[in-house]
# Entry
Amino acid sequence: MRIAIVEDEQKLSAVLESYLAKEEFDTTLYSDGNAALEGLINAPPDLVLLDLMLPGLDGLSICKEFRKHSTVPVIMLTARVEEIDRLLGLEIGADDYICKPYSPREVVARVKAVLRRTTVTSDAPGNQRLVLDESTARVLVDGDVCVLTAVELRLIKVMIDKPGQIFNRSQLMCRIYPDGRIVSDRTIDSHIKKLRQKLSAVCATDEFIHSVYGIGYKFEVP
# Structure
């Protein structure tokens, strides 16, 4: 897996690169905010280590803009304690943060933990047919790729995590819109319809998301 290190202090980035290489991660280094954003969008890695203070664009601006294009996990590196509330509040879409000064071993451990949390595959019998990769916002169905929007990604993850469980529209609404916004039942139905269409485009013979009359939806692998 490839880790992008966005850090203008070359000694720090070199140390992180060395520790990650020992754990068999490939790395790409960026020291300038503008170049980093362009590189992240054009060639998304599996995870981003993103310093808050950078020349050019700062880390907050990079993360906000990157989130418009990708759901790849981002770990913020910061020495500015006053920014932590903003990071934890998911205002910018970061998945975790690490305060400077930090131990390189801690960074590697956090990288592994976030990757485990955000890359989901199911070991349940038969579920090898469908694999969800959150880091690239894709579903692989029998090896064929289906690219999802951020909302579709959250929606299918909720159901894949609990195959066979029936979710009503309110439950799905709360899980895919964590900011508490109010949307209608028709919005959920529209997301389900589009998700089904995308899955059907790569696997027309089987249906993975099933309607349960009068209740809601459930996910099952045929």
About this structure: The helical segments are 10-22, 33-42, 59-66, 84-88, 104-118, 150-161, 169-176, 185-202. Residues 2-118 form a domain with the Rossmann fold fold (CATH 3.40.50.2300).
